[in-house]
Specification:
With 265 residues, the chain is of the alpha/beta class. It has 12 helices and 10 strands.
């Protein structure tokens, strides 16, 4: 394995940056590549068939071009739908991102948990499986929001975020039956930790937010333990399937995360 072989992070947008930060903290000299399917953004409103076809094809092209040592699908929607297909298709380790229902169940006192994700994620049978396996004694309330994904991207572009927009986006979670008893909310979209402060301010009562970013970072570090790395991490590359003015506006946020070069796939 060449020390220069990168770790490749993949998402429909820039939500996966919430996974990049804790991973970089654990492996500071690792070369990172970030790939965003901006032409297919957002995934949460697409059908399972579209995502199952699109994600493996894109990752196949990215792996062929950049030869990463590991791929991290930093997207709950893509992972819950296409992870098994991607793993079967690629000859590199693949780490996925799934809703952190188990940790939420371990800390919930009221035994009522909210799962806040995209529409595509919260309807997946995989969420049923996790709920049955790890939260069978809990009420699990799911709520999908495409608007929060858009708001997270806007925040990283430096745009102001209206508090009322956040409140409206999460209202259905807390107005559902037993929603007033939710004490723990799973952020089942990598975009949503980017809005955690806004979500906390908008929630009608105090809740604990949990997400999988730290666990994913530990998994990536474990799978690459003992491998050779450069003495100093090279500048990261951010790849977009479509370059437009929105991507240009993300340049400062990407640079702050170590991605100084932006290219098209």
């Amino acid at each position: 394995m060449s020390p220069d072989a990168p770790i490749l992070f993949f998402d429909s947008g820039v939500g996966g940056l919430s996974v990049v930060a804790p991973t970089r903290a654990l492996i500071p000299s690792a070369p990172f590549i970030y790939a965003a399917d901006s032409a297919g953004f957002p995934y949460g409103t697409k059908s399972e068939a579209e995502i199952a076809a699109r994600v493996p094809a894109l990752l196949g092209r990215l792996v062929e071009r950049y030869r990463p040592r590991l791929v991290c699908i930093a997207c709950n929607t893509a992972s819950t739908i296409a992870l098994s297909v991607v793993r079967a298709a690629l000859d590199v380790p693949v780490v996925g991102t799934v809703p952190t229902i188990k940790p939420a169940a371990l800390i919930s006192k009221t035994r009522v948990i909210g799962v806040l994700g995209t529409d595509a994620t919260v309807r997946q049978p995989y969420v049923d499986k996790l709920s049955a396996e790890y939260a069978s004694d809990c009420i699990v309330i799911r709520h999908g929001s495409a608007e929060l994904v858009t708001l997270a991207e806007a925040k990283l572009r430096g745009e102001p975020i209206a508090a009322d927009a956040i409140k409206a986006a999460i209202a259905g979670l807390f107005t559902a039956p037993d929603g007033d008893r939710i004490d723990t909310v799973v952020l089942a979209c990598t975009h949503f930790p980017l809005l955690e402060a806004e979500l906390a301010a908008a929630a009608p009562h105090p809740v604990t937010f949990v997400d999988g970013s730290a666990g994913i970072a530990r998994r990536v570090a474990h799978l690459t333990a003992g491998q050779d790395w450069p003495l100093v991490a090279p500048p990261g590359i951010a790849i977009f399937t479509r370059l437009d003015e929105d991507v240009e506006a993300l340049s400062p946020a990407l640079a702050a995360c170590g991605f100084s070069e932006i290219v098209a796939l």
